[in-house]
Each structure stands twice: as C-alpha cells, then as structure tokens.
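Possible regression after last week's pipeline update?

I re-ran a chain I had predicted before the update to compare outputs. Posting the input and the new output here so someone can diff against the archived version. Not blocking, just want to make sure nothing changed silently.
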Amino acid sequence: MIDAYDVLGLVPTATEDEIKKAFKVMSLRYHPDKLQASGASLVDANERFNDIKVAKDILQDSARRKIYDTFGLDLGQEPPENEFWTIGWNTLLMSIGSVTLRTLVFRLALWLIGFWWLAFLLILAGVVVAGLYAADFNYGEFRVRSEEAIPILINVGVIDAVVVLYWLWPLLADTAGLLYLVVEVVGLEIFLESWKHLAGVAAVCFFIAWLIQNWWMWILGLEVAFSVVVLLSLLIAVSLMKLWLDGMEQQQVEKLRSWRLDMRKKRKDLEDEVAELRQKVQMHEQRGATAASRQR
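New output (post-update):
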C-alpha cells in the first residue's frame, strides 16, 4: 500500500495547488519513457508512474482525501455512506419493492378480469393469436412462429389461462397469482426440473390463497408499509454513518498526520545512520588499501 503524500513528496497538510505542482513534477521526472532511457525496466517504470497517478487521484478528490486522512487508507472513489446506500438499495429495497410491485400488478390484473367484457376481449385475443399461430402468419420480417414471438405467445396463453381459472373459481386465480410471485422470487428453473416441485408449491399456494382470500388489501398495505420502514431505516443508517465519519475525522486526522511525520523522521534518521555506516566502511577500506600499498 502506497503513502500518497510520500509518493508525491508532500507533507500531510499540502494544499490543492501544491498537490497539482507535485504531480506535474513527479510525472515528468518518473515518466516511463524517461526511466527506460536511464536503464530502468518497463515494469518498474510503469509501476512507479502508476503509483504517482493513484496518489494524485486520492489527494485531489476532497471527499476521498478526507477518508484517507481519517483512516490512513484509500476506500476508493465512492464515499462509504454512498456505498452503504447502494448495497442497501440493491439487496433490500429492490427485493422488497419488486415483491410489492408484483403483488399490486397481479391483484390489479385480477380486478380487471372481474369485468366480463374485458375478460371476453382477452379470451378473444387469445383465440386470434392461436389462429395466427396455426396459420403460421407472417408480416414483413415478423413471423408468429419465430423465437422473437415466443414471449408474446406465452404471455397471451398465461393471461387467458388465468381468465379461465377466474371464471371457474376465483380462488384458483389467486393461487396462480401466488405461484407467479413464488416463481419470480426463486426462479422458474427449479420447477422445470421436476413436476413434483411445481405440484407441491401449487398446493401450498392454494392453501395460502384460501387462508388470505379476504386479506389481500391488508397484505398489500403491509408490504408498502414495510418498504417505507426499510427505506427510512436505510436513510437513518446512512445519516448515522456520515455523522460517525465526521466525528472520526475530528479525532483521527491530527493523530494520523503526526504519525506520518514521525515515520518520516524515523526513516530519515535510519537513512542518515546507513549513510554514516557506509562512509565509515569506505574510510576503513581506504585505510586498509593504503596500509597494504605501504607494505608493498
């Protein structure tokens, strides 16, 4: 892990202008073409130049630099609170919202099917589509038996099947709606592997539909309320994280800056000690060479 300040030869309190100037100087001094001309390997030259660019990216982004100065490491371009929000949105809100939306859609569909004239039109549309499929109807580049038309045929068939189930017994249509929700959550593949899985889940869905047949509005309301609660909880969690990061910044920035400066001082002391030892070794070797020449 690089020290961004050390790579650019800056103190931890460097200003934005100082960072820009240091990057310009260091990028010119350690450009891969120049280093290769002086005998350095291409891998080492590219690695050194990449460290300089990474250090510049960290320090020129004020939010990113703030995190770096607080924790002593780079967490990337995205602030932690934004990353937390993204994870919560994708893993919680999207899943809950998807189930709520699908519940609303299938209940709305069943309500519309309750109008006999609309249900009759849907059945008529299914009969027309079936006739076009039997006649292998073509219109320009569109062919009713092509792969592109398969999703349309499946949707029309499913809609007409739900209409028929609703006419036979509305509870069967509720069961189909629940089965649709289960398939959307766990995937269709598991049911295609075995008809026993599908039959078992359908039986469970029928039983649940029978239990909750008069409670759908309450269930939908609970789903919406739960989504709102999760959203508010996520907003509060992100706000608390932001406050915690601000508090950590006030506590840790000065400590980390002092630690960096102390490490630089210790490194300078070690470098001076090494240089002094080298000088003593060289002087000892010179004395030995002088003594040997006198003996000759």
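Follow-up from reviewer: compared with the archived run. The mean pLDDT is 85. Marking as no regression found.
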